[in-house]
UniProtKB/TrEMBL annotation:
<dbReference type="InterPro" id="IPR001264">
    <property type="entry name" value="Glyco_trans_51"/>
</dbReference>
<feature type="domain" description="Penicillin-binding protein transpeptidase">
    <location>
        <begin position="355"/>
        <end position="649"/>
    </location>
</feature>
<dbReference type="InterPro" id="IPR023346">
    <property type="entry name" value="Lysozyme-like_dom_sf"/>
</dbReference>
<keyword id="KW-0808">Transferase</keyword>
<keyword id="KW-0378">Hydrolase</keyword>
<keyword id="KW-0328">Glycosyltransferase</keyword>
<dbReference type="InterPro" id="IPR050396">
    <property type="entry name" value="Glycosyltr_51/Transpeptidase"/>
</dbReference>
<protein>
    <submittedName>
        <fullName>Transglycosylase domain-containing protein</fullName>
        <ecNumber>2.4.-.-</ecNumber>
    </submittedName>
</protein>
<feature type="compositionally biased region" description="Gly residues">
    <location>
        <begin position="724"/>
        <end position="739"/>
    </location>
</feature>
<dbReference type="InterPro" id="IPR012338">
    <property type="entry name" value="Beta-lactam/transpept-like"/>
</dbReference>
<dbReference type="Pfam" id="PF00905">
    <property type="entry name" value="Transpeptidase"/>
</dbReference>
<dbReference type="InterPro" id="IPR036950">
    <property type="entry name" value="PBP_transglycosylase"/>
</dbReference>
<dbReference type="GO" id="GO:0016757">
    <property type="term" value="F:glycosyltransferase activity"/>
</dbReference>
<keyword id="KW-0121">Carboxypeptidase</keyword>
<keyword id="KW-0645">Protease</keyword>
<dbReference type="InterPro" id="IPR001460">
    <property type="entry name" value="PCN-bd_Tpept"/>
</dbReference>
<keyword id="KW-0511">Multifunctional enzyme</keyword>
Amino acid sequence: MSAASRARVLGKLVAMIVVAGALVAGLLFPLVGGSGLVARNSASLLDALPVELTDATPAGNSRVLAADGSLITNFYAHNRTVVASDQIADVMKQALVDIEDSRFYDHNGLDVQGTLRAAVTNVAAGSVQEGGSTITQQLVKQTLLETADSAEERQEAIEQDGVEGLSRKLREARLALALEETYSKDEILTRYLNIVYFGQGAYGIQAAAQKYFSVNAADLTLPQAAMLAGLVQSPTNDDPITQPENGQTRRNQVLQRMFDLGHLDGTTEEQLAALMAEPVQVAPGISPPNGCIDAAIGGFFCAFMQQYLTQVLGISQEQLDNGGLTIQTTLNPQLQTLGDQAVLNTLPMGDQLAGMFTAVQPGTGAVLAMSVNRQYGCAEPQCESVVLHTAASKGSGSTYKVFTAAAALEAGIPASTVISTPGNQYTSRVFRGPSCGGDRSQSTGMYCVENAGNYPDTLDMVGALVRSSNTYFLALEDRLGSVEGPVRMAERMGMSFDQPTQNSADEIIDGNFGSFTLGAEATSPLDLVTAYSTLAAQGTQCDPIPVVQVFDRAGQPLTGDDGQPVVRGDQCTPNAIPANIANTLANILVGDTASPEGTGTRAAIPGHAIAGKTGTAQGRDSVAFVGVMPEYAASVMVFNPKEQQDVGGYGGNMPATIWHDAFAPFLADKPTSAFPPADPALMQGQPAPAPSAPAPDQGTATPDQGDAGRGDADAGQGDADGRPGNGNWGGGNGGRGGN
């Protein structure tokens, strides 16, 4: 040891003596005949104990669990898994006490004798052989450091020099005395072992045992315990993974100290020498997953859930990272896995086209799965950080016809109402917009839509829904006289129009956008399935929820500032729409998957009644399918999220196929219920009197009887500024499943 190094160590020794003297003079008096030192005024010390030290900090990692209890991921700022005293090997406790604070069980939080002895030992050795502070003092320092809210508080917790350093030592000493008055030795030791840093990103003994040896803290052996105990003083320099020789030297110092104190019962000097000759045997483990980017399953669901926790439930990210919470989610791992595979069966990972499968539980709003051919949060080409399931990106075409149908039924227009639209086109008498033929972008007359394919002139509401007729539903909007009914019905069923990419509901109504019924508005897949699940739940509308309960570190429901649990059950509105309307529409929509003329037959699964609806936006820029049962509901949307692209199919193609591929194996061992029967009055009611027929070139809208047509003719692209507007029209297909 050089003279300069020895001088520095001697300087620290002098400083320690000064601090020890100040502690004795200012805080303590000798307890004659006793084994340690006691506080002059215990009551005043306990009064000064901050909440950070009376609380059982730190809490450790927060865990996110799927519906079956399996781990999705963790959230943590520091990798720490808090364990109880009986989950830590006794040899680990002994090793730490022997090397850090051998008089731990004899003193009352301060150990002047031990401090001076450690200083002399360290000076003689030229390196740190023994800790100078007691474990209780170290616990105080580590706790105040980790719970500091500002850089100033963190600096105060580690200040070493001058008056500030002495002040910190005095405060630590006072709080250490108070801790000893409050907690048992075993509690203090356990808390210290749970908070101290062991290197390699491992905080606490359980994380360290896993990181270095891939074992639990309860199963640590003597050599392993000695290694970890030695890391506390210098986790980087003595790291047995990166610095194996230093690690072995430090481990041997701990073993020697334990032997000298008589704590290696039955071990001879020869056995000790043989043990110390062995190199450190590490078995490095991987760090637990952290955040949604590491999610074992459902990365996009995880991101949606995280946003829900912070923005809806009011849980801060700091609390999520450090609160030791347990988040019980609604994710169904089986359906999530099958949804993932179903999307990839149709669209490769990272394809320009994104396919979003989004499933919820009708009647509760529980989000069951969010699948897409993307990976969440990484930096590769196939990665995405936007949760496309919740983003309103593109229109969903004829899926919006259900809102017009529901509004019509509520207005007294029965499902038996037939409307004739000769020539597969219809010009509105209510809504303004592009006319049929010519340059539609320049037209400012009455709104006209066309059907693609051969449609019969006359359809009733049942046939028009199953075959997805544009002309019928624009004429039906005419009968309603305004778009307000369909828009408000959509809101009641669960649609929201509040994203920057969307027109608000009031804007759509004030503009009297006749294209609303053709799905021109940018739509999030989650909103879409939420609205349709209202039909499956007999009119009960439920907001989507990804979380069943959030538990605190003690296993109790987490409460907010008002003392109430932050999770308060389902967010459902019974009778958001009349049950007879919901049931009637559900029964009609079964025809979309079950009847030969339906556009969604590719989604059909034998033995299950599936109410479905296809949708295809203008220019096939986006395609969709929604299918619901009383127990399950899911939407599928396929589009290019970055630019306009012809998908190359219709809602009955890729979306219906993905829906089928996810649910067919999922339902193989699960029965589903039939929908309650349709209301005969809504199906067969008396149509309104026929209006005077307009000139044939304007189309007719009469209660005529006729055959139903076939085909899916959907619409909806946005204006140049990216906000969907009025005046859009649809192409479509003629045939089952969208050609």
